[in-house]
## 1
Amino acid sequence: MAVSLERIVSRLNKQAMWENGAVVGSINDDTHIATITFGHALSNSLPGAILQQLAEKISDYGKDENVRIIILSTQGDKTFCAGASFDELISIKDLATGINFFSGFASVINAIRKAPKFVIARVQGKAVGGGVGIASAADYTLASTHASVKLSELAVGIGPFVVGPAVERKIGSAAFCQLAINASEWQSADWAREKGLFAEVHESTQALDQAVLQLANKLAASNPEAMQLLKQVAWAGTEHWDELLIERAAMSGQLVLSDFTVNAINQFKAK
C-alpha cells in the first residue's frame, strides 16, 4: 500500500520535534481536560530546558480556569521517561550548573504539588530515576504492565535526592530504600502497584489510555472546589518542599562533579 507524501512529511516532522526534546500541551474546552506530553528521542530523557518547560506548562494549566484535570504523558510506547539526560549531566563542570540542572526536577515536582488540579500520570513504559519521581509526584498514576521502575542514581555515583521525597511519600521509606539502594535492579509494574506508586496497572496501552480518559472525564465532571481541597489535604506537610528540594539539588549537583560519577556516566553511555 502506498504511503502518502503528507503522511511521510508528518512522520518526519514528529521525529524532528522529539529529536532535542519537546513539551506539547492542549486543552479540550468541552471536557476541561488538559493534556501535557513531553518527550525526547533518547528514551524521553530530560535535559534542563525540557524540565523548565514542563514545570511551566504544569503551572500554567494549574492556573487556567478552563482546566479541571491535567493528564501527564510522554511520547512513544516503550519508555515513559529515562530520567536525567546523560549528555547534560556529563557537561556539568561547576556546582552552580549542577544545582541549576537538578533544580529542574524540583521545579516539576513542586509544580505538580502546587497545581490546584489533580494531575493524572499515564505511564506506558519503563520509568527510570527522575521518571519515577514524576510518576510518584502525580496525584493518580495509571500504568501498563510494561512500566517497570528503577532508581538508578546510585549506580552512576549520585542518589535520588531530589525525587526522593516524592517517591517516599508515595511508597514509604522501606520501598524507597529498596529502589534507591538496589539501583541496578528493575521492579515490575505489579510491584509498583503493590507499593502504591501506581494506582492501576493495565494489560495494554490501549486499555491504559481508555482508563486514563475514563478517570479524567469522571473527575472533570466533579466539583472543582472539592477536588482542590482534597489535593490540599493529600499534600499536607509538604509546604517546605520549595526549600527541601533545592537543598537536595545541591547534594546531587556536588556529586555529579566527582570523578567517580563522570566515569560511571561515560561507561553507561558507552553501553
## 2
Amino acid sequence: MPELPEAETIGRALKRALVGRRITEVRVFSPAMREPLTPLLDAELPGRRFVDVRRRARYVIAELDDGRALLMHFGMSGVVRVESAAVPRRRHEHVFLHLSDGRIFRFECTRRFSLLKVVTLPAPGADPVELSRLGVEPLCDEFDGAFLFRHSRNRSCCVKNFLMDNAVVVGIGNIYATETLFAARVSPSRQAGSLTRSECERLAGEAKRILFRAIELGGSSISDFLNVDGSEGKFAQELRVYGRAGQPCPVCGTVLETKRLGGRSSCFCPRCQL
C-alpha cells in the first residue's frame, strides 16, 4: 500500500503534469472502485483548470479553479499516469481525464480499493471536510518527541499500531513504521504508554529522517507502486528489516524475527529492539 513517501512522490509529479492544464473530457470505464466513479461524469469537469496539487496524509488533492478538487487515495494498488493519448488503455485503467495539452490522466487500480472523487474545499488551499479527522503530519515541526510522549500516555496498544494510528500521526504505514522502530531500537510490541521521553525523541527523529530519505528516492516499490512516469521508487534498496525475516540483523547479526501485530507482519531484531 502506498504510504506517505509514495503519495508525496505522486503528488509532486502530478503537480508538474497537471497545474495549468484544463480537463477537456471525462471517460469512466468501470462503475466503481472504493466509491462509485460515475459521479465524475455529472460533475461538469470539462473546462475546469488545475491550480494546485498537494498531499495530505496518504491522499493527493488536485485543486480545481472552481473551489473543488479531485481527491485521490491509492489503496493497495492504485497507479496514476499522465501519458499520450496514443497509448492504448490498459485493462485496469478505470478513469481517463483528457487534458488540454493532449495527454490523458489515467487512474489504474487492479484491486479497486482506490478512491477518486470530486470534493468541495472550504477555502483555496484548504483540506476537504472528508480529511478533517486526520492527525498531524510527521514531517511538520509539531511532530516531535514531546508530541509522541504526550499522546502515548495511558495508551495500551503496541508502539507499532500507535505509530500507524492516523488519528495521531498520518502516513506512516507498515513499511516505514517497521524501519523507524528498528532505527530507534524500540520493539514493535512494546506498550505505547511505556515509552520514555528519550525513546519518543528517537522515534520522532528517525521517522522524519527515514521519510525524508524515502521521498528523496521516490518511495518504495515493493509490489505495485509506480510513479506517474512509470518509474519505480528506489528506497526499497535501503530497507534494513522490512521483509527480511530470517536474515541476519544488519547491526548485530541476530536472526530477524517476525510477529503479527494489528493484522500486519512486523519484522524486528529481538536483540537490538527493546
## 3
Amino acid sequence: MTEINILAESIRSRFGTVKRARGNFLYTEKRVRLTDMFLEGGRAVLGWGSDFFSGWTILKNIISRGLTGSFVTDFNAVSKNSGLSRLSRAVSALLDDERIAIICNSKEDALKKSLAISKDGTFVYRPWNAQNIDWKNAACVLIAPPLAWAQNIWIVAVKSEFVENLQTDFCSALIPAALEAAVTRSFYDLIKALQVREEKDWFKYDKILTKYWTRHGPWLFPKIPQEKYESFVQHCLDCELVVSPFFSVPSIVPFGADSGVFKKLEKSPFDF
C-alpha cells in the first residue's frame, strides 16, 4: 500500500467514510470533523469546496456541454492574437512573466521536460514560500495546480523564447477541456489568495505546531525523525488531524481554523 492508501484506510477505519469536505475540514461518517493539514499535498491549499474555489462551477458548466474528450475547444485552444492558451495566460499572470504552459501527467515527466530545456534554470513553485527566486530569470517553473483534485497534473511554465528555440517538440498533454478550464481558474483564485493570506494567518499557531514542525509560511516541515514519522501521522489522526503521510511533503497550516483544533495534540503530545 502507498502512503496515500494507508492514510485513506486509517481515516476510514477510525472514523468511517468521508461524507463531505469543506475548507480545511473533512466530515466523516462517525460525525467527527477532521482538520486536513495534508490538503492533497498542497493541491487543495485554497480549501475544499466551491466556497474557496470558483472553478467547480466552470467545470460543471463545461461538462454539461459534453466537452470531456481529447479535442481542442475554446477553453484550451491557443489564441491567434496572443499566441497563448487561457492556461498559459493564467500562469503568466501568476509569475508576472510571459509563459507557455505545458501540461504533464506526472511530476517526473514535468521534471524531465524541464531539465531537457534548462538544467540550471529549472525551479519548483510553491506559493507563500520565500524562495528569493526572480521567476523572470527562470527558464522553467514546475507548478502543481492549486486544484483540489486527486490527480497528478503538473504544469511546466516555460519562457516563450526557450520554446521557440527548442529542437524537440514538447507537446502538452491533452486533458479534457472542462478540467483544463478548472485548472486555469485555480491559478486566478491563487493570485487572489496571495493578496489576502499572509504571515499573521499562520504564526498564531506556532506555540503548538513548532514543537513538531519547522514552519515556512503555511508550510510545515517535520522535526520528527523519519523513522518515527509514520507513527506520528497515526498519532495525529488520533488527535483528529490529517497531516501529510509523506515525510518529504510538508503539511499545511489550516487557514482560518480555530486554534482549538489542536487541543487534542496539545493534551496528548507525541514523544520523539
## 4
Amino acid sequence: MNNKDFWDSVNAIIVEGFTPEGLQKLDEYAEQFVTGRLVYQRFSPAEQHGCAAGGPAHVVATLLAGAENQTDRATSPDVGGFQRELQRGKKQAEIIEKWAKAVGCWTDDVNNALQNVLGAKIAEGGEAMVYDHGATLVKSIGLDYFVQPILALDRITLHNAFFPETTLYVLGFGRTDGEFKIIVEQPFVKGTHVPDSEISTFAQNMGFKQINPKNWTYATAEIYLSDLHDENVIRSEEGNIFVVDCDIRINTPELRCGGVRKLTTDVWFRE
C-alpha cells in the first residue's frame, strides 16, 4: 500500500460513516502504526513511539486528523491564514467526534462530567482543567494554544517522546460549551517546583538552546519547547526532575525559532 492508497482508504472510512468494517480497518492501521510497519513521516521513530504511548485513541485520532490535512492539501494547497487554520481545525474536530461517538470514547459536557466523577478541579491552566484521580491526574485539554486538533495531538506525542516519565494517555474526547477537548490521564508527581534557573540548565542539558527567557522558550532545529516554567516542572521527593506540562511542537521555520522541519502527513509501509 502506498501513501495515496492509505489515505484514500481512511477517507473512505470517514465518508461511509465509521461502519463496523471501517472501525476494524482503523484499528488495524493503528496496530500497524504501533508496531512500526506503518511509518508516519511527520514523526521521528522516537516520536512515533511517543504517539503510540498515548494509547490507541490517540493514534487513531492522529491519523483521522491527518486525513483531513491530506484532503485540505489536495483541494486548497495555496490557501493560508488564521481563518483557514480555524476551518481545518473545525473539520478535524468533527471527524474525530464522529469516530469517538462510534467507538464510545466521547463525552458531552466534559468538565461537568469529570467534576461529577472526580470532584472539583484542582488546577486550571491556559488550555487545561486538572482533576485529582489518586495516583494519576485527569486533564481536559482544549485547543486554545493549537487551533487544530492535529497540533494538540502532536503536543501529546512529543511530550511522551521527550518526557516519558509523565506520559499523557488519551482516554477520549468531548466538548465543553461547544469547545473541543482531549481527555488525558497522567501520572501524579509529588514534589516541589523547580526554579527557572535550574529548568534552564535542565533544558540545555537536553540539547535545547534558550530562545526567550521571558516566556520560557527553548528550541533545537527539530523541536520547539515553551512554557517551561516553575509550575510545570516538579522535583520529586527522590530529587528527580519531571516535566508535567509544556508547549512542545515540531519546530518549523514558521515558528521563527531556527526550525527546519516540515509538517507532513505522508506515510509509507515497511515490507
